[in-house]
Every structure is written in C-alpha cells, then in structure tokens.
Design a protein that fits this description.
alpha/beta, eight-stranded mixed beta sheet, binds arginine, binds zinc ion, zinc ion binding, metal-binding, zinc
C-alpha cells in the first residue's frame, strides 16, 4: 500500500463517528422515570433549561413522581444530562438515538417524485405543498370542497380552511376540525389531509362517510399554526408554539392551545413567554386563535361538533381540561369516546386512553376544545394520535397510514354516534 493511501485510510478511520466509544453522535430522546420528589425537582430543573426539549409532558410543572418523561436532548448536552441523571440515581433509557435520520426520513418524498405518486397521503408535506394541495383540491373537487380564508397568522401566512359540503338540498349542521395547532405534531396536519382525501374519494362509496356528508358539512383547517409548522421544516423540528414576538421578552411564540378564553392562564399554563405553555398576553391575543374563535362564533348556530387533532400519546379527550368540574353531558361524551377507543382496540389492536382532559392528562386551561364547548358546541374533542412515545413527534411516514386509519375510525364512530342523537 502506498503511504499516501495509507494516510487517507487513516484519516477516514479517524472520521468514523465515535458511537463505539460511547459518545453520542446524534441528539437523543430519553425516557426518564423520577421516583422521589428530589428526582422530580432535578428533572424539572434539567427540563427547564433551554438546551433540552420536553416532549412529554408539555411543561416541567406537570412532572410528578409518577410521570414518564420524554426528553429530547441535543447531542451537545447528552453527556451532561445523562451524567446528572446517573449521579442522582434517576433511571432512564435511550428511546431514540438516530433522531437526525428520522427527521430526514420524515422530509423525504416531499417533492414530486414519480415513484411516490399515489403515496401523497402517506408522506409528510411542507407548508407550501400543503397550501398547494388545498388550492388544487378546492379546484378539482369544487362540487364538494370550497376554500375559505379565515384569517392570517402572526407572520401573515394565510389560514386556509376547506369546507366539505355536498349539495343535496338538505340544510345541515356542521363539524369543525383543526389540525396542527402545535407545530411539531406532524401527524396532525397529515390526518386533516387524510380525512379530506377520504371524504372526497369515498363519498357515495363508503356508507359511513356518505351518511356523514349527507347530514353534516365539514370545516377542515389543515394547518392552524402555519408559522410554527414552517419553522419545524426549516429551523427547529421540535418547535411547538406559534411564532409571535412579545414586547417584554426575546422569547418567541405562544402556545395556541393555552390562548383561548377558558379559565385562561390559570394552573397548567404559563405567563412566561419563554415557556412552552405560554398563554399569550391575553385570551385570543394570537391571530391564529382569534381567527378560529371568530369563525366559530359566527357559525355557532350550525357547528355542533368540534375536533382538535394533536399528537402524541393516543388519547381521546373531551372537556374539561381547564377544571376538574365535569361537563354537563360528561357521561354522553364519555360513552362516545369509549366506543371509539373500543373499536380502535378491536380493529387496529391499539390502545387509546379516553376521558375528560383534566382527569386523563393534566389541567390545561385555555384550550380550544374547552372554549368551543363553553361557546355552546356540545360535542367537543381533542384527539392525541400515535404513538405513545416509541417515536413521539418523529413518527415515521410509513406509520401515517395506520395512525390516520384508526383516527378516522374514531372520528366516524363519534360523528355517527352524535348524528343518531341530533
Ligand atoms: N396535549 C394537549 C395540550 O397540552 C392536550 C390538549 C387537551 N385539551 C386541552 N384543552 N388542554 O395542549
Ligand atoms: Zn398538541
């Protein structure tokens, strides 16, 4: 071997990532279980620092001795964080260590790859591609899909909604569904697209969707937080909030699901602009929340059902989340989500928790579901789609199909269940 080649080989070996030496080469996601109250404090401390991103629960204040915490740790902090955990005897495991790969994978097939034709709804899409699809859909299927602009985001991006309505001479009530309140929950916009495509494709083919559309109009907002969604594609995959700037802080963004007028900014939300659950300056201070609230206020006579789609953790929730008080029709709502969860278990062998938000996860005031319910929409739900933490927000595109199919089954079950009553 010539000395030159030898040198090159040596150099390239030197460049091999040091995975085998125990040094992480990618950002990691840790699953952590605090047991003592000291460990809870330590964990709250770690997760409050700006270097890590808390995946579950949504805010450090929700961490208790029983919480399974999912924490995204950038490669530069993995050693400090894991050392700190070990020093304090906190048990943890690494659930993801190929995060970079997963993120890149999620963005694939985004372009007009001819091989991917027909797989559009089994891929994730950039904001621009989603906008284009919304427009195209309203043009190609103008007999049942209409584009409505309901407002604009903080950075002045359009909030496009699709109204699905079949003209059969019946005057109809309506169902509202929004997706993508939280930027990093990519499966959520994917589900809105999945649903619209399903409705258009299977109207007059599948009896469930036919009955649904024959009796109800559907207002679908595929991306409620376009600025945040865009930001997760370009800059920070883990972003949750919108991208509004506040006067008194350098921190960006408010949590749109804490910005509605339902026990606004009480326990479970934060007044600090740097926090992930920052409630905003006042109820509906954020243009995205305001646009949705305005639309629903002006359609409150017809909108009977409200759905907000999130991920992850596999839950079917209903009001209240802003108080432990029970909703007036609690039992009715419980029966609906119970049936939906049972059907998911039977048909897809997957487990969804169900119940009121406050009882099932945590107190979280200012949410859109509670606000819609208080407005007078008696059937109001938040879905938390797949998974339960295996991939979390980085759910691979090949799992979109199952995640959306089971969510669609839940949606059908609930809408058809309500249709029997009203
Ligand atoms: N994970 C969601 C959140 O933190 C839960 C939403 C449940 N509903 C609610 N109004 N908080 O926003
Ligand atoms: Zn969410």
């Amino acid at each position: 071997m010539s000395p030159f080649i030898f040198l090159v080989l040596l150099m390239s070996f030197d460049n091999i990532p040091e995975k085998c030496h125990g040094n992480p080469i990618h950002d990691q996601v840790l699953s952590i279980k605090p047991i003592t109250s000291e460990q809870v404090d330590i964990l709250r401390n770690i997760t409050s620092s700006n270097e890590t991103v808390l995946w579950q629960p949504a805010s450090p204040s929700y961490i208790t001795e029983k919480t399974e915490v999912h924490l995204y740790v950038p490669v530069s902090s993995v050693k400090t964080v894991t050392d700190q955990l070990r020093e304090n005897g906190v048990t943890y495991s690494v659930v993801l260590e190929d995060t970079q790969e997963l993120i890149e994978d999620q963005k694939k097939n985004n372009s007009a790859n001819p091989r991917m034709k027909g797989m559009f709804f089994e891929s994730y899409h950039s904001l621009e591609d989603i906008y284009h699809w919304i427009n195209k859909t309203s043009q190609e299927y103008s007999h049942m899909a209409t584009l409505i602009l309901i407002g604009s985001s903080y950075e002045k991006r359009p909030l496009y909604m699709l109204k699905l309505s079949v003209q059969n001479g019946v005057s109809k009530n309506a169902v509202w569904m929004d997706c993508g309140i939280h930027a990093r929950e990519w499966i959520s916009p994917a589900f809105c697209l999945w649903f619209v495509n399903y409705a258009i494709t299977f109207y007059n083919v599948n009896s469930d969707i036919t009955a649904m559309l024959n009796n109800m109009d559907f207002y679908i907002l595929p991306v409620m937080n376009p600025d945040g969604y865009k930001y997760t594609w370009t800059t920070n995959r883990m972003w949750r909030k919108n991208r509004s700037r506040s006067k008194d802080s350098d921190c960006v963004g408010a949590d749109l699901n804490r910005n509605f007028d339902a026990n606004w900014c009480t326990q479970g939300a934060s007044k600090r602009p740097c926090d992930e659950t920052y409630c905003g300056a006042y109820p509906e201070s954020e243009p995205e929340a305001q646009a949705v609230a305005q639309f629903l206020r002006s359609h409150r006579d017809t909108v009977k059902m409200y759905f907000s789609i999130h991920s992850y953790s596999q839950m079917l929730l209903f009001p209240y989340s802003c108080t432990y008080d029970r909703a007036e029709n609690h039992d009715e709502l419980l029966a609906l989500v119970k049936k939906a969860a049972e059907r998911i278990r039977i048909y897809y062998r997957n487990v969804y928790k169900f119940g009121s938000g406050a009882e099932t996860i945590y107190l979280a005031p200012g949410g859109s579901d509670d606000w819609a319910y208080k407005l007078g929409i008696p059937y109001s739900f938040t879905f938390e789609l797949q998974d339960r933490g295996r991939y979390g927000f980085l759910l691979p595109a090949k799992l979109i199909s199952k995640a959306c199919s089971e969510a669609l089954l839940a949606l059908k079950t609930i809408v058809l269940g309500v249709l029997e009553k009203i």
